[in-house]
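Quarterly update, task 2.4: nicotinamide-adenine-dinucleotide-bound model.
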Amino acid sequence: MDLGLTGKAALVGGASRGIGRAVAMALAREGCSVAICARTPDALDAAAQDIRQETDAEVLAVKCDMASNDDIRRFVQDAVTTFGKLDIVVNNAGGPPMGTFESLSDDYWEHALAQNLMSVVRTTREALPHLKRSGSGRIINVTSVAVKQPIDGLMLSNSARLGVVGLAKTLSRELAAEGITVNNVCPGNIATERLISLIEQRSKELGITLEKSVSAEETRIPMGFLGQPEDVANLVVFLASTQARYITGTTIQVDGGSTTAVF
Ligand code: NAD
């Protein structure tokens, strides 16, 4: 299948490692130029170099905190200045910390909302004039299966990400006439540093080894194993493609069957 991605320009948030890095790599393999960001330049530059080496794609690395409006504006502007256009936006950032309602102060709430909800609002706002010019603009938000089944102990994630789903659904209808699609991708248990550190935290609380904790997670997944970042990236690439022009306003999980909810 020709995905029609050759020559497109994409922007991927939080991409020095994990799902964001895999998405940027996969889009670059399909012929996109990619702008990636993270807060610390060392890991970011290394990721950019790896993507260039593996794909020959043009890669722009911008130091940017997705919780900062000024940084986001600069990130999007740098991408547009470098590539001369923008066709695809993948909204992604690190997940908020674990915590129950009574353990979380306003500072935690405000940071989670800035990083995981307002980042989507701000990046989309900044990118929108360019996506409109694209003729096949794509907005893809990396959220979590928590939007279908809230996960105990992840109060901030469960709350902020549902805002993204409401925003995306509403926006998909507002932008459909412009040929722009808006979709959410929901990772389940994907073996990234973020997931392993969450499992490690749980294993310490339960007083069991990390290996035991990982295999306990795996037994809860019908497919019996943790997903890889590429499993999520493959869906993002398809949603970014011209072949996905009629798919908008959806929220799709990549979870090996672990979500028991119907929708
Ligand atoms: P990760 O921690 O492995 O990678 C996150 C990337 O984003 C890194 O490159 C990091 O440097 C960057 N980043 C973090 N905060 C940032 C910020 N404020 N500004 C700019 N860059 C920032 O995470 P991951 O596992 O790849 O997850 C990506 C997203 O998917 C997260 O929001 C996570 O909560 C969500 N998610 C992941 C899983 C999973 O199993 N891995 C499951 C559900 C949801």
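Highlight for this quarter: The chain is about 50% helix and 15% strand.
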